[in-house]
Amino acid sequence: MSKRARALFLGLLSPAILSLVAGGASAEDAAWNLNMPRGVTEVSQAAYDIHMIMIWVCTVIGVLVFGFMFYIMYAHRKSRGVTAANFHENLTVEILWTIVPALILIVMAVPATTALLKVYDTENPDIDIKVTGYQWKWQYEYIGEGVKFMSELRTSQDEQYGRAPKGEHYLREVTQPLVIPANKKVRFLITGNDVIHSWWVPDFAVKRDAIPGLFTAAWAKTDQPGVYVGACTELCGKDHSRMPVVVEVKEEAEYYEWLAGKKEEAVIYQSTIGKEWTNEELMAKGEAVYAVSCAGCHQSAGEGIAGVFPALVGSSIVTGPVEGHIGILINGVAGSAMQSFADQLSEVDIAAVIHYKRNSWGNDMGDIVQPIDVLNYKQNQ
Amino acid sequence: MAHGPSKNFFNRWLFSTNHKDIGTLYLWFSFAMFLLGGAFAMVIRAELFQPGMQLIKPEFFNQMTTMHGLVMVFGAIMPAFVGLANWMIPMMIGAPDMALPRMNNLSFWILPFAFAILVSTLFMEGGGPNFGWTFYAPLSTTYAPDTVNYFIFGVHIMGASSIMGSINIIATVMNMRAPGMTYMKMPLFVWTWVITAFLLVAVMPVLAGAVTMMLMDINFGTSFFDAAGGGDPVLFQHVFWFFGHPEVYIIILPAFGVVSQIIPTFSRKPLFGYSSMVYATASIAFLSFIVWAHHMFTVGMPIAGELYFMYATMLIAVPTGVKVFNWVTTMYKGALTFETPMLFSIAFVILFTFGGFTGMMLSIAAADTQYHDTYFVVAHFHYVMVAGAVFSGTAAVYYWLPKWCGRMYDETMGKLQFWIAFIAFNITFMPQHFLGLAGMPRRYSDYGLQFADWNMVSSIGAFMYGGAQLLFLYNVIRTIGWGKPISDPKVWEGAEGLEWTVPTPAPFHTFSTPPVVK
Q1: Could you point out which of A235, B200, B325, B467 has its C-alpha 20 to 30 Å from the C-alpha of A70?
Q2: pTM over 0.95
Q3: Contact in structure between A151 and A246 (CB atoms under 8 Å)
Q4: Is some CB atom of chain A closer than 8 A to the CB atom of B14?
Q5: pLDDT tens, B240-268?
Q6: What CATH number does domain A3-119 carry, 2.60.40, 1.10.287, 3.30.460, 1.10.260?
Q7: What is the edge-to-edge ordering of all strands in the sheet holding A197-201?
Q8: How far A303 CA lies from chain B's nearest CA (Å)?
């Protein structure tokens, strides 16, 4: 039977059908998608296979039980002139329908156990990547390589609030995707910075909670280069739905080229810290940083949200001494949603965004904040 | 000897110690909460009708999902079944009233205050609880709005109310059964409620412990749930789900009881396998205590723990299957009619079983890696909570309403409500399975374009389902006010049990002299 015919057949038999598309098309091109993707790793394929076994077992049981019920509802209705029987006990059938489901479960426990063992096989990785969940972005650190960056949502507020048409990759695009090589066992060491997040890539069947103060581990190895999109799956505050996971799998050679490029970037960046930045440069950079890192809470014109997120317009910190303002960004505010940006933003970004806040929306401090000021502040702490 | 209710409105309702009046109060309160929680759901579905933020802000969206869950679980479903217990348990076991009538009054009247406190936070600065009905720390502690303290106080009051209600039910059933009403002769609704009451007494203090630890962390500098201070955020989840998993059976067991009363009545045939039903209920209750961490398959437990919780969870399918098979066999060779309560009960059996199937799938830890915290889970628990508990509660109201008020409801309107609810329910929640499998996480205020179609279908279904509840409200009010008067004590041809031996409508006091059960 062709896949389509089989699917149609099932659709008629039982509502338990979650599998009209038995192949598992990737999420991007499937608007009316019905099933889980089969994914590109050993683990995701094991998860998919046990998922399909369960669907079939449930479908068979469902067809039998519901079929019998519908037969009863048709044949034993009072309007057909039947009289009710009076039996109400039978030890044999009670034992039978206790034992048989138990046996089915024991049989199903075998593939379920095998699949779970695969999920937990995190030993001997080729590459370790530390994944840290922040409100509301991910940080990726290539352990031992000195490469570390934030991955944040790129979709604009205008698109989200209907002021601009939504792009094709609405809420599925980030500033920098995580890049991993094909054919290498990559282990993800996952933790949280503030609240609990959960890092999920459906095509890898990797979903592990990012818990502040603890580490969880997961792994992936795939031979299929491509871009895989996932999501945060633990409620983590207002922008829970706005911190997608995007992973790009590159061929091994390309990956190492990319990694070398990232290392070089870090070296070049060091030289820009000491440089004297102009007002225009800082404003341009600051505006970009603000849109990604600050506007989510403090809103796009610094007006904040009363009672939750303070306004920046006319704020005593923004219009006060520069040191105080830098301090807030470096240290955060304990016990509030204002986190420390010391590890999230570079000195240049912090200087630029502070400069931007102090000279926008009617704030008119007129002073210039240089990256070197931020670096000095950090070192003097 | 017997006197009627007080003529003074306040005396009658505020100071009532009568199990029927308190039952009525519980039922109306729970229906009001059901409409409120439903209104929150409508806001959620309206915002999710299409991608993008159209109507509300994300922070308000989170308050809506949280309040929807809290109000439905603690305000609508639980009090509804306590109301049914109040009305029916004394009448079913031949008792004149509940064992502790004044405590009965107290356990009801603190509830409206608990919910007034909880709901009022929506209007406060910073907004209401926004951390989900499962309120995981540290989102609910360090990062919570200040109103979280009102939430904690509200939860404490609800817990006290539930514990008092449960003690009352246990005391009533243990001490006030009519002569000859042995335990194994009690109607199944009574059995399921006794077991539920024991669950409540066992786990409500655990919930109180969880929120008290939160209170300490927030206000008194302790670090139960903060790793930086030597605590553990995962500890919160263990404590919460040690309460939370029995909690879902607290909701569903009385629903099992209701259906076990209704199906025999309209099959005109005794319940099949009574004693195995009792044992199955007890087994489910026992298992509910030892499976909690299957809600936490992604927190990175050691594999031994994960395997144990997977196997234990799979086991639940056995006693649950026994119940389903017994219901179906009760119908087998009966003489079936399909009045509204029966329609809701049959739909319960089918849709609850479907929810059970997805529950089995969720128990498989490797596959749960994909399902966890997606719309697949949302679909699963709405199949067991809505098509389970709410359908069963609706069936119970239609089944016993004629006995309560001596008037018959409009059958056509009841059936119309059933079909709208049944179809709309499936339009709402079936597509959520697909959304979850395709990768849409739950508690998302916005989503990518690939989820747009099924979300729109789901929202349309939700609006229809909401409409059906207004029909329900109308039908109940119409019945009480203007329904066709009836006086047959039995009401239904196939009804069996003590509650059908008292006059219709049930007088203010019943069984002042205990009946003798043979």
Answers
A1: B467
A2: no
A3: yes
A4: no
A5: 999 999 999 999 999 999 999 999 999 99
A6: 1.10.287
A7: A178-181, A245-250, A226-232, A197-201, A206-210
A8: 15
